[in-house]
Amino acid sequence: MRKPVIAGNWKLYKTKQEALSLVEELAPLVADAGQVEIVVAPVFTVLPSLVPAVAGTQINLAAQDVFWEEEGAYTGEVSSRMLLDAGASYVIIGHSERREYFGETDETVNKKIKAALNGPLIPIFCIGETLAAREAGETFKVLERQVKGGLAGIGAAQFAPVIIAYEPVWAIGTGKTATDAQAQEAHAFIRGVVSELYGAAAAGKVRILYGGSVKPENVKGLMACSDIDGALVGGASLKAASFASIVNFGQ
Ligand code: PEP
């Protein structure tokens, strides 16, 4: 059995006080979600102040990015050791916004996943095709390249904690969700690539989250798909009520 993960990506939103209010409102609403792993990813600066707020709750903290070096002359970067120190236990890596606006490639994503695993932080490794790639019939080719590139040189034992998030770029922040069938087809394909890399047992265990305009209204259908093990949620994670109802999809 794969434990579902519902993760909220807060992107460039929420100051310290706003983040604290959101967590305080969210915690009682998800107190009965023991069957679900709950993660929220605030901006770096807010992480330490959320540590006492999430203590004793079901909520875990993630960062939205990590640099691959541990320390050094890398102005503006943050290492996995520093993220652990700040209270994160997960980190989102390779989000499409980072690939699009900050020049991330399969190679940099790969270095970041390795750095996270060494932290140790649990990587939430994001992949997904653009609309142009889907329309050109290249979805599987892109996903295979991203999975294999992101995981290059990572052995089976090291891979075990990795969470994969399938986020079709055309569905992020657009209100257009992939249909349940489109998402299931992509997830099954990704699981197949993991099986090719690490074997059937590892593929059976890896959690693959769907991301792209997940809302309380569509989460149940997505979660009913056999290869969808959770959600990475952007917009709908910024309000306690909507994120809680996504977390509580099974109730
Ligand atoms: C995301 O940022 O990972 C995301 C899926 O955003 P949204 O839910 O707003 O589409």
From TrEMBL:
<dbReference type="GO" id="GO:0006094">
    <property type="term" value="P:gluconeogenesis"/>
</dbReference>
<comment type="pathway">
    <text>Carbohydrate degradation; glycolysis; D-glyceraldehyde 3-phosphate from glycerone phosphate: step 1/1.</text>
</comment>
<dbReference type="GO" id="GO:0005829">
    <property type="term" value="C:cytosol"/>
</dbReference>
<feature type="binding site">
    <location>
        <begin position="234"/>
        <end position="235"/>
    </location>
    <ligand>
        <name>substrate</name>
    </ligand>
</feature>
<feature type="active site" description="Electrophile">
    <location>
        <position position="95"/>
    </location>
</feature>
<keyword id="KW-0413">Isomerase</keyword>
<protein>
    <recommendedName>
        <fullName>Triosephosphate isomerase</fullName>
        <ecNumber>5.3.1.1</ecNumber>
    </recommendedName>
</protein>
<feature type="active site" description="Proton acceptor">
    <location>
        <position position="167"/>
    </location>
</feature>
<dbReference type="InterPro" id="IPR022896">
    <property type="entry name" value="TrioseP_Isoase_bac/euk"/>
</dbReference>
<dbReference type="InterPro" id="IPR035990">
    <property type="entry name" value="TIM_sf"/>
</dbReference>
<keyword id="KW-0324">Glycolysis</keyword>
<comment type="pathway">
    <text>Carbohydrate biosynthesis; gluconeogenesis.</text>
</comment>
<feature type="binding site">
    <location>
        <position position="213"/>
    </location>
    <ligand>
        <name>substrate</name>
    </ligand>
</feature>
<dbReference type="GO" id="GO:0004807">
    <property type="term" value="F:triose-phosphate isomerase activity"/>
</dbReference>
<feature type="binding site">
    <location>
        <begin position="9"/>
        <end position="11"/>
    </location>
    <ligand>
        <name>substrate</name>
    </ligand>
</feature>
<dbReference type="GO" id="GO:0019563">
    <property type="term" value="P:glycerol catabolic process"/>
</dbReference>
<dbReference type="GO" id="GO:0046166">
    <property type="term" value="P:glyceraldehyde-3-phosphate biosynthetic process"/>
</dbReference>
<dbReference type="InterPro" id="IPR000652">
    <property type="entry name" value="Triosephosphate_isomerase"/>
</dbReference>
<dbReference type="InterPro" id="IPR020861">
    <property type="entry name" value="Triosephosphate_isomerase_AS"/>
</dbReference>
<dbReference type="GO" id="GO:0006096">
    <property type="term" value="P:glycolytic process"/>
</dbReference>
<keyword id="KW-0963">Cytoplasm</keyword>
<comment type="subunit">
    <text>Homodimer.</text>
</comment>
<dbReference type="Pfam" id="PF00121">
    <property type="entry name" value="TIM"/>
</dbReference>
<feature type="binding site">
    <location>
        <position position="173"/>
    </location>
    <ligand>
        <name>substrate</name>
    </ligand>
</feature>
<comment type="function">
    <text>Involved in the gluconeogenesis. Catalyzes stereospecifically the conversion of dihydroxyacetone phosphate (DHAP) to D-glyceraldehyde-3-phosphate (G3P).</text>
</comment>
<keyword id="KW-0312">Gluconeogenesis</keyword>
<dbReference type="InterPro" id="IPR013785">
    <property type="entry name" value="Aldolase_TIM"/>
</dbReference>
<comment type="similarity">
    <text>Belongs to the triosephosphate isomerase family.</text>
</comment>
